[in-house]
Specification:
Arc Repressor Mutant, subunit A; 7 helices; about 10% strand
C-alpha cells in the first residue's frame, strides 16, 4: 500500500496543512494553532478544569502544562481553585484571552465555511463519520494488542 493510499498519512498531512494555515493566519496576533484550540476549549463563563482541557483536545497533559504556563505569562488566562473540588484548578480567560479566543473562533469559522463551499454536505458528513470511526477504533484499548499480535504473526521467527 502506498502512503498516499493510507488513512493515517492523509489525516496527518491534512492536519499539518491546516495547522500551518492557522499558524500563518495567527502570526500577527501571536496566536498559534495550538494556543487557539486551547482558548476555544475554555468555557468563557465557568472556566474549565485544567485536567479536562488536554482530553478535550486529544493532547497529553504534559504538553498542555507548558502551553498554559505561557498563556498565563501572556495574561490570556488565569487560574482559580475549583469551588467544588479543592484539589482541582479551573482555567479562566482574561479579557485579552477572550479577544484571542474570538480571533481563533473566527479563523476556525472561516476555514470551515470555505471548506463547505468547496465540498458537498454529503461528503462532509461522510468525512465526519469516518473521522469519528477512526477515533473510536483508536480508543479501543484492545487495538494495540491486536496490532502487536498481528505484527508478531507476520514476522518470520529467527532460528
Amino acid at each position: 500500500m502506498k502512503r498516499e493510499e493510507t488513512i493515517d498519512y492523509n489525516i496527518k498531512v491534512a492536519w499539518h496543512a491546516i495547522s500551518r494555515l492557522y499558524n500563518q493566519y495567527g502570526q500577527k496576533f501571536d496566536v498559534t494553532a495550538s494556543t487557539g484550540f486551547v482558548l476555544l476549549n475554555i468555557d468563557v463563563e465557568k472556566g474549565t478544569p485544567a485536567t479536562k482541557i488536554a482530553p478535550l483536545m486529544g493532547m497529553e497533559a504534559r504538553s498542555l502544562t507548558r502551553m498554559l504556563k505561557s498563556m498565563e505569562e501572556k495574561k490570556w488566562i488565569y487560574r482559580e481553585p475549583d469551588p467544588t473540588d479543592g484539589r482541582s484548578v479551573r482555567i479562566f480567560l482574561t479579557e485579552l484571552g477572550q479577544q484571542k479566543r474570538e480571533f481563533s473562533r473566527q479563523a476556525v469559522r472561516e476555514f470551515n465555511n470555505r471548506m463547505r463551499n468547496l465540498v458537498s454536505e454529503d461528503k462532509i458528513k461522510i468525512f465526519l463519520e469516518v473521522a469519528q470511526t477512526v477515533t473510536q477504533l483508536i480508543e479501543n484499548k484492545d487495538l494495540i494488542d491486536q496490532m502487536a499480535n498481528s505484527f508478531m504473526e507476520e514476522v518470520p521467527k529467527s532460528k
